[in-house]
Amino acid sequence: MKAQASVEFLVLVGILGIIFVIIFSSSGGYYFYSEKLKVEEKYDNICTTVKLEIETALEIGPYYNRTFYLDSGDHTVLIQNYEITVRKDNLVKICYIPINISANLNNGENTIIYNETGISFV
Predict the structure, then answer these.
(1) Helices then strands (H, E): number in the chain?
(2) Are 83 and 109 in contact (CB under 8 A)?
(3) Cα–Cα distance for residue pair 16/69, rounded to 1 Å
(4) pTM of the prediction?
(5) Which entry of 29, 44, 72, 81 is 20 to 30 Å from 38 by CA?
């Protein structure tokens, strides 16, 4: 009778061990996925910020001049052919804008200027 209780206890501990292994191994994949979502959200915010700055300049018109800030990081922001492209390694986020301009934006401080010659960034 004691041997049967010991076997049942060991089987229960084994089943619980398998359940914990499954839970912990699946949470590692979730952590990687959540980190990827955070990075995508950051790049989406950068893209939206630049797009809103351009659209605001177009709405207000000439003589618009404003300084805005982009998150620091090891990404590049390129504006070209009606697109804003935020890129890091193989991750790319693209937003579309209503005007064809070309510029490379810096991490940190950027200034948008809309004058008689058009929109430019400093």
Answers:
(1) 1, 7
(2) no
(3) 51
(4) 0.72
(5) 81
| 3-state SS assignment for residue 89 | coil
What's 11's DSSP letter? H
37, 39, 44, 49 alpha-carbon torsion, rounded to 10°: 140
Q: Which tokens hold the place of 90?
A: 């193989």
What Rg, from alpha-carbon coordinates, does the chain have? 26
Q: Where are the domains of the chain?
A: 2-121
Which residues sit opposite 78 in a β-bridge? 85, 104
Distance CA 57, CA 77 (A): 18
Dist CA 3 CA 50 (whole Å): 71
Residues 16-36: tens digit of each pLDDT: 888 888 777 766 666 777 778
